[in-house]
Amino acid sequence: AGGRFAVAAGVGAAIADHLGELSRRHAILWPRPESARLYQDKIALKALFEQTGVPTPRTWVISSVEELTDLVRNGSLGERDFPVVMKHPYAASSRGMAACSSLADAPTALTAWFAEHQAPCIVQERLHIKF
Q1: pLDDT in tens, 51-100
Q2: What is the 3-state secondary structure (H, E, C) of the chain?
Q3: How far is 65 from 41, CA to CA, in rounded Å?
Q4: Which distant-in-sequence residues (6+ apart) come within 8 Å of 20 by Cβ?
Q5: Closest CA to 120 of 80, 66, 51
Q6: What pLDDT digit, counting tens, does each position of 16-49 carry?
Q7: What are phi and psi of 77, to 5 degrees?
């Protein structure tokens, strides 16, 4: 398997359930088991950030190139939003991450991304942060 299940939907929830059982048996765990649900579910984490007012980059969850076309057609996504990063919704850290520099390249980049991953793609504006 070699980590193949680490990017499957529900892995974070399964880990949280297991850690929750250990907690019920009085194991002292940190971080708390319920936070494990967010470790590998970037979609749920983004929703939590929105609910609590944590600023995040503009983000789209795209399941097909057709959805990309619809977002462009309705004005929700445009050249102004590029460059973007493409992220696996259920992977930890940077596993499954790719970049796309322009709207013109997006259909090809997403087609390649979907060929490799069997999950929706999180498309997120790339932030340029200077330290």
Answers
A1: 999 999 999 999 999 999 999 999 999 999 999 999 988 877 677 789 99
A2: CCCHHHHCCCHHHHHHHHHHHHHHCCCCCCCCHHHHHHHCCHHHHHHHHHHHCCCCCCEEEECCHHHHHHHHHCCCCCHHHCCEEEECCCCCCCCCCEEECCCCCHHHHHHHHHHHCCCCEEEEECCCCCC
A3: 22
A4: 33, 34
A5: 66
A6: 677 777 777 777 766 666 676 777 788 888 999 9
A7: -140, 130
Question: In Å, how far are 24, 69, 86 from 123, measured between CA atoms?
Answer: 38, 13, 5
C-alpha–C-alpha distance, residues 67 and 110, integer Å: 11
Q: Which of 81, 86, 88 is nearest to 42 (CA)?
A: 88
Please, what's the largest Cα pairwise distance for the chain?
Answer: 55
Q: Strand 59-62 to strand 98-100: parallel, antiparallel, or no bridges (unpaired)?
A: unpaired
Residue that is written with structure tokens 């973007």 in the block: 84
d(CA 44, CA 50): 10
